[in-house]
Amino acid sequence: MSVQMLPAAPPAKATAAAGKGHLNQVDLVRVLTFASVIAVHVITYTNDGASVTAYGALTLLHFTRSVFFFLTGFVLVYTYRKRPLASGTFWRRRMSLVGIPYVLWTAFYFGVIQQVGMTPLPLSEFLDDLWGCIYKGIGWYHLYFLLVSLQFYILFPAVLAVLKATVRHHKKILIGSLVLQVGIALAETYLPAPSDPDSVLGQLWANDGTIVFSYQFFLLAGCVAAFHYESFQAWITAHSRFIWWGLGLSAAFALTWYGVNLAYGHTPGDATGVLQPEMLPWYGFVVLALYLIGSRWAARQQTGSRWQRIIAAASQRSFGVFLVHPAMLWVFLNEFDMWFPNHLPQGLPLTLSAYVFAVVTSLVFVEIVIRTPLAKVLIGRARIPFTKPAPAKPEPQPAAA
């Protein structure tokens, strides 16, 4: 086998954890989204490229980018909307927590590519190609997310300043952003590529999936939603029926469009293009639906409940799982052929086995790393000690007079 490359707390109170500014619903949305992105990669590499069913599932699972970037903008603005932002400190922290893991994992995956099935390059060419992978976000198929996030971190102080200066115009800004997003998606999908691939426009065109402006609407939507958090939360709660209807209708439209593309002769892979403008309604309603699910779940949790702690722990580890799971998937598909007899076809059995293997082994890896001094540089998370610190002894009280 080979790889192609208890009583419910009041809603307003329950959505925020005991920690300052922490939103429990975001934890659940993050976990569900990371679980979905692993499914995207597993389905892609365990099914035949001509499988209409597999790529139909991928059509609906490609929402993950939009949710990722909505959450990125949402969490940042929610954190800084009512307090000053020191740009230098913000950039240093974000570049440390995301930039260092990005460079290290890009180097790791690039090294794997060089060692497997390729002739080793001379050192100068190796470094040139590695640098190309770093600045283009193409070290491995999932690392674009970190590069886009880093681009947004650079822009974020300016974005926040604009939002604070234009409070009365946020609806207009969001509508303009949506129009721009549709225009970008139309151009990326239907316009011919520039004649000169080495020009600036040609380079931007070739790397559209790793550029922040390809996702600007969802980033900005997350920012605006968090800026008006209380109103957004109330709107989500009051419009659940609209969200569910929109989710169903947009899913039907997305699958219909997938069928139309197939009918016009596109391969299943081309028919499920991520950046197609026709997919935008589905992406938008999935963002709203997942946030609604997260909010309802959070409203039913008591502070410190078992499920709240489990989801919070999973959320804390999700970024590390995201970073390492392609390596685990690669190992499964390339090193454990003996697990699958030759008569076992690609499809559901292989997909489920690969998914379980990738998730479990990635969690084990992260659970080890997060308890070592390498936690911040490898998975962008603070180290967790292997043992809980002993509780402080109470100070002796003076005897009563």
Describe the model.
This protein has one domain. Helices cover 68% and strands 0% of the residues. It contains 17 helices and no strands. Helix 2 packs antiparallel against helix 4 (64-80), helix 2 crosses helix 16 and helix 4 packs parallel to helix 10. It is globular, with a radius of gyration of 23 Å.
Count of alpha/pi helices: 17
Q: Distance N terminus to C terminus? A: 81 Å
Total discrete domains: 1
Secondary structural class: mainly alpha
| Shape designation | globular
Mean of residue pLDDT values:
87
Helical content band: 55-70%
> Which parts are unreliable, with pLDDT below 50 for 5 consecutive residues or more?
1-14, 394-401
**How much strand content do the residues show?**
under 5%
The major sheet is characterized as: none
Number of strands: 0
From the alpha carbons, calculate the radius of gyration and give it in angstroms. 23 Å
- The helix-strand sequence is HHHHHHHHHHHHHHHHH
Keywords: Cell membrane, Membrane, Transmembrane, Transmembrane helix
Domain Acyltransferase: 25-365
Family: Belongs to the acyltransferase 3 family.
GO molecular function, one term: O-acetyltransferase activity
